[in-house]
Amino acid sequence: MAPQRLGVLAIYLSKSRLEELAFFRKLSLEGNKLGVQVEVFTPQDITSDTTVRTLTYDPQIKKWTRRQTTLPPVIYDRCRYKAVENYRILQAFRKKHDNLIFLSRPLANKWNMHQILSENETIRPYIPYTVRYSSTQELLKVLKKYKLIYVKPKNGTGGRGILRIEQIGSELFLLQGRNLQRTIIAPYRATEKQLIVKLHTMKLSPDYVVQQGIDLTLKDGRVHDYRLLIQKNGSGQWEVTGCAGRIGPHRSITSNLHGGGSAVSLDTMLSHRFSSAEKIETIKKEMNSFAFKLANFLETRFGKLVELGMDIAVDPKGRIWLLEVNPKPSREVFQRIGQKATYRKAVTRPLEYALWMLKQRKEDAPKADQDNSGVEDTTS
């Protein structure tokens, strides 16, 4: 029996280097076990309305091979929209090939997402206060109210371009962060006037958001948060795959693994901060409950999704906050903490969901034919 085909929509980092190729290899190996052939391509690889040059991984020779073939019927979109041009190219592809099954839909940028989530009264309490950047004066108003804020590019990923500003005295402020290349910016202590001058040099614009800061600092000065992964399973249902803690490197304001962060198990991280086993259990249950609530709500606004990575903060009182939601999450955090079974599950679930989607389409096709069997053809 021929394997089912799953297309992975990717993007080139350079003329020939694909982002996430190591993950696609693992996806291919797990796909082989399930009878799924993973075929990787980019919009640039399309050769006609129905044909494409794809990459498939051959485990026997341990190499990727390229071949000309028809477009796969199911598409797993793994493109990160780091530039407006990429977004336009990928949107054009999706629009032109809307007959294909897409496992997910693009979500909104940070500002639009904040507005959408704020509409839901059960999700709103988990969202930090956020405004679009308008001026340094407005930024300072938010800073003086919350004493700690984050300034983020609305389309940023991986901790790029994020600033952390804290009021540490009546007339003293501390600015830290990463530039757009993800390099750590040296901590800068400043008076209000000096801070205003410094912020002007950073050329902030309405493409940034200003967000209430949540205290994420550990005793050693490093910051932390949690990455929760929720995915559709082989029955088309949401299921929490796993959750782990992330700790940023020294002098970093973010905990992203790509920015040098380290990973620890969820229980280890929570036990480090809370002594009550009952409190820890309550926090874990609320994290999971919130994940289902958020996933179901986002599907009502954006359509079918296959997986979501949620960056969650837990403040010193145990309150849960959503820092960010990502429709194209990595799953490396589970590999880092040695949870091999969780990591494998995180890789295989999109494959199992793709198989379920194909099965649904096959079952729906005869029904559609049956529904149309009594309809008189009036086109001639």
From TrEMBL:
<keyword id="KW-0547">Nucleotide-binding</keyword>
<protein>
    <submittedName>
        <fullName>YheC/YheD family protein</fullName>
    </submittedName>
</protein>
<dbReference type="InterPro" id="IPR026838">
    <property type="entry name" value="YheC/D"/>
</dbReference>
<dbReference type="InterPro" id="IPR011761">
    <property type="entry name" value="ATP-grasp"/>
</dbReference>
<feature type="domain" description="ATP-grasp">
    <location>
        <begin position="114"/>
        <end position="355"/>
    </location>
</feature>
<keyword id="KW-0067">ATP-binding</keyword>
<dbReference type="Pfam" id="PF14398">
    <property type="entry name" value="ATPgrasp_YheCD"/>
</dbReference>
